[in-house]
Design a protein that fits this description.
single chain, 212 residues, mainly alpha, MetI-like fold
Length: 212
């Protein structure tokens, strides 16, 4: 569980760090949307697991520890393969991106015009008007993306080079004909996914109840 959670969290943070700013700029500026939207629509329908052969060809079984500029002895970082990170990031990226764009575009124009009338500059409009309004939509995208990313993780952990994680446990137990361990792994994955979703629901109800 520890290794699986570490892989998900690292890929999750990286995907959000890319998807949220990209979605804000695409939703706010039409020129950015025109430049990027065709690529998004081209790659969005492709299932994350369809990228597996290409990603494995690019990265092999390279781990996160191998690309860091300093020597790392931590076994956890050696178990976080770049191929898995990329597959999970693809699964998380598109739900977060699309919900961010929708959240930005749903801001009433009157609110933006009122802020401009009061002298707000573009940076203030982005950070104090658009982003707060879009946050509930972003959180919805995060919930969806986390579910997709978690599914991608389990599949990615069955790939060559994996020596730990819940997906690896299930596949290894399958080879040993241990159905009890397979079922236990499935139950644990379901419980962890439910716990993540409930935590995000709690944040949504506590901080974004005004959106209702």
């Amino acid at each position: 569980m520890y290794v699986s959670l570490a892989r998900v969290i690292v890929a999750f943070i990286l995907a959000i760090a890319i998807a949220v700013p990209t979605g804000i700029f695409m939703g706010r500026y039409q020129v950015v949307k025109d430049l990027v939207d065709s690529l998004v629509e081209l790659f969005r329908p492709v299932p994350p697991l369809a990228w597996v052969p290409l990603i494995l060809a690019w990265t092999g079984i390279t781990s996160l520890a191998e690309i860091l500029p300093w020597r790392v002895e931590d076994a956890l970082l050696w178990n976080i393969q770049l191929s898995m990170l990329l597959i999970i990031m693809i699964g998380v990226f598109f739900p977060v991106l699309l919900n961010t764009i929708h959240g930005v575009q749903s801001v009433p124009p009157q609110i933006i015009e009122a802020a401009q009338t009061l002298g707000a500059r573009e940076q203030a409009i982005l950070t104090r008007v658009i982003l707060p309004h879009a946050l509930p939509f972003i959180l919805t995208g995060i919930r969806v993306g986390l579910g997709v990313g978690w599914m991608c993780l389990v599949a990615a952990e069955m790939l060559p080079g994996s020596t730990a994680g819940l997906g690896y446990l299930i596949w290894y137990a399958h080879e040993l004909m241990r159905s009890d361990i397979v079922l236990a792994g499935i139950v644990i994955i379901g419980l962890i996914g439910t716990a993540f979703d409930q935590a995000l629901r709690l944040i949504e109800s506590k901080y974004f109840s005004w959106n209702e």
